[in-house]
Amino acid sequence: MTGGSAEFTVRRAVTTRAGGVSPEPYDSFNLGDHVGDDPDAVRANRERLADQLGVRPGHVVWMEQLHTRTVTVVDGPRPAPVPATDALVTDQRDLALAVLTADCVPVLLSDDEAGVIAAVHAGRVGARVGIVPATLSAMVGLGARVERIGAFLGPAASGDRYEVPPAMQADVERHLPGSACRTVKGTTGLDLRAGIRRQLLAAGVAGVAIDPRCTISDTTLFSHRRAAPTGRLASVIWMDTRGARR
Q1: Distance separating alpha carbons of residues 17 and 219, to the nearest angstrom
Q2: What is d(CA 71, CA 159) in angstroms, rounded to the nearest whole number?
Q3: What is the distance, to the nearest Å, from the Cα of residue 220 to the centroid of all Cα atoms in its chain?
Q4: I need a labelling partner for 63 at 20 to 30 A (CA). Which of 49, 187, 235, 242 fits?
């Protein structure tokens, strides 16, 4: 997916399990550095990702994701993952923001006119406590306007497969309306992407695109609920000046 201005092109990318060097059970393009994989393999996979995106080494910014509503504004490369945060926001060109998932919802946001982008880790807990509205507020603080922001929700556990106890479903629904559903088994479930989409549209964003893939059922993707331990996918957003329209 792309968009942007004459000065830059907003680009988004989502990885799969294929194309890396990690051994089982992280095979093979694991980008998570906290799941027990060989650190050298993770480092090699992250270097490969930057190369494939056409981003300078070290210009992919990662997070230490803790299921919070903490948002961090970054203005340049970071030598290590940004600690204790679940969303990154920037107005810097050629700086890629990455979110790691293996069932949670990766949310990529951009105001292409203002040149403000964000990457959000929206798991059940983070979505429940409001990580997405907090990110919108941080983007507005950098000059974005909500009515110009477009959203992309990446691969995640689908409502068809994401079973939860009734009390948990009711609690999340109270905080994130539209997320309660029934699974294919007829049990109580959560469709976090449906709830987040409703939340974003109610906030006034310009539009929401959804990758329909379910991490639990699609074995080309990592899923913690399907098989743990496992690796992590990356969803990445950046403003590419090399690919700007002439």
Answers
A1: 8
A2: 26
A3: 17
A4: 242
Contacts of 220 (CB under 8 A, 6+ apart): 16, 17, 18
Kindly give the interhelix angle for 192-203 and 131-141, rounded to the nearest 10 degrees: 40
**3-state helix, strand and coil shares in percent for the chain, rounded to the nearest 5:** 25, 25, 50
Tell the residue number behind the tokens 């210009």, with chain if given. Answer: 59
Query: 140-150: per-residue pLDDT in tens?
Result: 999 999 999 99
pTM over 0.90: yes
Asked if residue 5 has pLDDT above 60, the reply is: no
Give me the count of residues in the chain.
Answer: 246
Q: Which contacts qualify for 206-213: CB closer than 8 Å, 24 or more apart?
A: 206/147, 206/148, 206/149, 206/150, 207/150, 207/151, 208/150, 208/151, 208/152, 208/153, 209/1, 209/150, 209/151, 209/152, 209/153, 210/152, 210/153, 211/14, 211/152, 211/153, 211/154, 211/155, 212/158, 213/155
What pLDDT score was predicted for residue 6? 64
